[in-house]
Automatic annotation (TrEMBL):
Single biological process term from Gene Ontology: monocarboxylic acid metabolic process
Annotated protein name in UniProt: 2,3-dihydroxy-2,3-dihydro-p-cumate dehydrogenase
Residue ranges that the Swiss-Prot or TrEMBL entry lists as coiled coil: none
Organism: Prauserella muralis
Keyword Cytoplasm on entry: no
Length: 254
């Protein structure tokens, strides 16, 4: 029997990249998974690929009301939610002074507001049931100050800090709140952009820097991030809360 048999998990940004690997891993461990994302075609494809029991939700989780709609969708599909993985995000990676109003808003919205709104929408029911596992996807760059990541780190740093505060506040409610913080992770989208030569030269430098700072001398694979999330999603990780778990090949150590 899988460690998540009978559990219900919601993975935001769960149709693509790291989130897709997380959805796949939690489903393999026995969970019913609700995949949330911005793009209907991507979400539909992921739900079909996962097979039942899986459900989808399409919406911008940075906007008021969407996280509550996601919670209702998950409840209607499978009943109460045990696991919330706040993976939605992604950086607009630019030198700080090259950011525009639009890229600033997108960076904070997609990484921080999605996470904050989902926590607020899911925590009341978790507290009533006395059970919950929340895993936020943060970033190693918060710790190592990676090239061109200042604005992204302002958002992800908020994600780390939110987890610590919630972990303390809900510690006696059977709810744990942790962060998985990856360094550079190879995804199909990044690989394709690099292979096609469409990635800006500056982004190549950022990724080269990231790998140079990793003692294992390579990026992470998506399933290596998913494995850490799956552990923190389990019932028996119950005494681990408020932690930032680096999946970083040793890029920072503590
Ligand atoms: N790839 C890396 O090197 C890396 C490193 C550290 C952290 N991360 C983080 O891991 C997570 C996944 O990144 P990825 O590389 O797989 O990127 P990705 O672009 O494949 O995935 C991001 C997903 O989030 C969803 N999303 C974004 N904004 C949303 C919103 N407002 N509402 C609903 N859904 C939204 C998108 O639909 C997409 O499915 C992100 O939080 C990213 O910041 C990635």
């Amino acid at each position: 029997m899988g460690a998540l048999e009978g559990r219900v998990a919601v993975v935001t940004g769960g149709a693509t990249g790291i989130g897709r690997a997380i959805s796949t891993r939690l489903a393999a461990d026995g969970a019913s998974v609700v995949v949330a994302g911005l793009d209907k075609a991507e979400v539909d494809e992921a739900v079909v690929a996962l097979g039942p029991p899986a459900a989808g939700f399409v919406g911008d989780l940075a906007q008021p009301g969407a996280a509550e709609d996601l919670h209702a969708t998950a409840n209607d599909a499978f009943g109460a939610v045990d696991v919330l993985v706040n993976n939605a995000g992604g950086g607009v990676i630019l030198p700080t002074l090259e950011h525009t109003e639009e890229t600033l808003q997108a960076t904070i919205n997609n990484n921080l507001w999605t996470t904050l709104r989902c926590c607020l929408a899911f925590l009341p029911a978790m507290r009533r049931r006395g059970y919950g596992r929340i895993v936020n996807i943060g970033a190693e760059s918060v710790r190592n100050g990676l090239t061109d990541h200042a604005i992204y780190n302002a958002a992800k740093g908020g994600v780390h800090a939110l987890a610590r505060g919630l972990a303390r506040e809900f510690a006696t409610d059977g709810i744990t709140v942790n962060v998985v913080a990856p360094s550079y992770v190879r995804t199909d989208a990044l690989d394709a952009a690099l292979a096609a030569g469409t990635a800006p030269a500056r982004l190549r430098k950022v990724l080269d820097d990231a790998v140079a700072w990793i003692p294992m001398n390579r990026p992470a694979e998506v399933d290596e991030v998913a494995a850490a999330v799956a552990y923190l999603a389990r019932e028996d990780s119950r005494f681990i809360t408020g932690q930032v778990l680096g999946v970083n090949g040793g890029s920072s150590m503590q």
